[in-house]
Write the structure tokens for this entry.
Amino acid sequence: MSNFFRDNPDILFHMEHLDFSRIVELKEDGFADRDRFPEAPTDLEDAVDNYRRVLDIVGDIAGGYVAPRAEQVDRTGARFADGVVTYAPGTREALERLRQAEVMGFTLPRRYGGLNMPKTVYSIAIEMISRADASLMNIFGLQEIADTINKFGSEEQKQRYLPRFCEGSVMGSMALTEPDAGSDLQSVRLRSHQDEDGIWHLNGVKRFITNGCADISLVMARSEEGTTGGRGISLFIYERDEHMRIRRIEEKLGIHGSPTCELQFDDAPAELLGRRKMGLVKYTMSLMNGARLGVAAQAVGIAEAACREATRYARDRTQFKKPIHQFAAVYEMLTCMQVDIEAARTLLYETSRIVDIKEGLEEKAERHPESARDIAGAVKRYTKLAGVLTPMVKAYASEVANRICYDAIQVHAGVGFTCDFPVERLYRDVRITNIYEGTTQLQVVAAIGTVLGGGISELLSAYEEEYDFSPVSERFAQAEQLRRDLEAAVSAVKQAGDPAFQEYHSRRIVETAIDAVTGYRLCIDALYSERKRKVAALFLARAVHRCRTRLEIILSGDRNCMDFHPEIIAGFPE
Amino acid sequence: MPLKIIVTVKQVPDTHNVSGDAMKPDGTVNRAALPAIFNPEDLNALEEALRIKDTLGGTVTAVTMGPPGASEVLRECLYRGADDVVLLSDRRFAGADTLATSYTLACAIRKLGDFDLILCGRQAIDGDTAQVGPQIAEKLGINQFTSVSEVIDVSTDHITVRRTIESGFEILRSGLPVLLTITSDANEPRPPSAKRAMAYKRIGRQACQGDFDEAYIQPGVCGPLDFIREWNADSIGADPQRCGLSGSPTKVKKVQNVVLTASDSRKVPNTDADIAKLIHDLIEENILG
């Protein structure tokens, strides 16, 4: 039986070196809870010790309980019959286990029965659960829904819903997507109207709803008749009753344990969350950003599982009278996989930390209105950073995780293509991570504005002020090179002054921004460990060339694809 | 009426990782050489107690005998839902065999006052004797069911259990109080609760000489407990001569880590001479004796 917290030296490294001081200060607000809740910490050290203990419990459940059930969950899958969705037995057992461990209200305040854990710790927990069974994350990781009620609901709504989430007696889902509103959520058509008594009712169809069979759903609906854009949309809390019918669940390539439902609402009573017309522009964006961070953690977890499977296989498998990991072709793949995981992880934890500070500052401004003015600047700065880093880490972690699972099968060769080894499941499960909660292409759209506006350069300057990079000067010089390439690329597209040119090169620019931030973070990690210096060296050696190539493409003024694609793509309308 | 349930637990060396210095020269286990863990079947006993409490209400009190470090298993009990814990710790308890251990535990249980159920793990993975539970029942003069693999039904005055026996099982019913020893088949122990683990992680020990204070725990109310009560031989009214090494007639000659490597069987002809030779061989190899 393994414990996915204790057996992961990289997670332990980050728990040792992550600076939780600001997060704890904001999250615990003078340690006011200590007199009311015996589990509340009394100081920083106590809080961080609590984080470790909770992760130890989740790591033990993930390694000892969830992982052994993952194969069966994948084979059985969630089922649908007579309008009822049934989880695989392993999913039910795992959820019961997590409920017993009282970790279902992970980030919610203690007064509603939650653990008041920061997002950074939640990301680590999601990562461990996903390493054990990616599909379980789609249920465990949906605590974002309760979190959204906590952020935007009325006190009465919070008291009514949140304790049930914390007890694990209800699950949540977010019902956003519709058949004709996927990436383009502004075009949702599901209608909501108020009856004479002021009660809202929902009518319409939602599709691709993860865990749509949940007891409580946040449903995005068009509340303003006659509108077509994002401003006519509100968010509703819907509690399952006979007015919502599940029409079917999807047959999918992977994450079989997670039911993906099509929902039909027929005059279903619901209550408004927060204010009218803010559904998409404020609440759903907040909900989605939380979910994106969760998916990034899920991707890192799946990649970790795949990398371990490949490494174990390469040690055990002998060809030409030696274990295959001794061949350069194999150890290079394994090394790249490990470096990419550590790169994605450091970016994930840094993003989570920034999200924690952003949310902590927002809560502080709400709790202590007298301080709102003083911290307004900091709120703005962290909101911008969280807004750009979240899509960046979602894009990066999910793309590298896909590549890692691809290579993990390659290391296994023929047997990796069979169902006798778990890598084929990981390969199928990881495929959704760069699609849902916005495809990688959409993450680029979400990030590009701030990247072009210089937001990443500001962040890198802040790192330069905060840390002394002289002990790792050689590595840091390479990281600075990435920064210069990013800035050169940004100014080149700006100078071109052509929106189509900018759109065409935006992925290259965002990828360079990701490499630059990750390169800086790995240099920071390298300040604490000799091994991390090597990880940084391996990452930066490749990143320098990637970024240089991207920059050269941009500087060359390349427009070939923009100009030629109608003639090149077969059957493309002229 | 809520039930009062007592669970006996033990911190044991992890015998899955036995090294060469697992035994001290005096024949007792060298606990320092092995990682200390919660005896696995005691976790099953605790789980069964907590399930009964979940159904019928009541209190679960965990008792362990051991050095101060053994209070870690009591913390683990609190993390999982025990209401109260007692550490029996005294230099005079050291080196106890099953007779002295059961005597000490029985004294402590008497001290705790009335009870309805005592749950023990079937056996500990260090000694593997399965004797302590039955000996406690004998000393307290109550019924016992050993090797219980399922609690079928329990009420405030009766209990029905399935008991594993060689090549089968039996279903037994008894009035309360009764002592059960629980096997690992009985249940899957629950994980520690995150909240309780944070609340009780720093709970300290406090030596108590006085009588048990009935008001100390309120049935059905979960903590928070202020400290782990620590009792010595005097506080439980035990005769020191019957405790620890001085109360232990068992003398361990040698502990060996035996790894069975033979893979095929040997056929012995059914003659008196061959059987006598087989028995002789087994004695030679210290398998019988």
Observations:
- Chain A touches chain B through 20 residues (CB under 8 Å).
- The radius of gyration of chain A is 24 Å.
- Chain A is about 60% helix and 10% strand.
- Chain A has a mean pLDDT of 96.
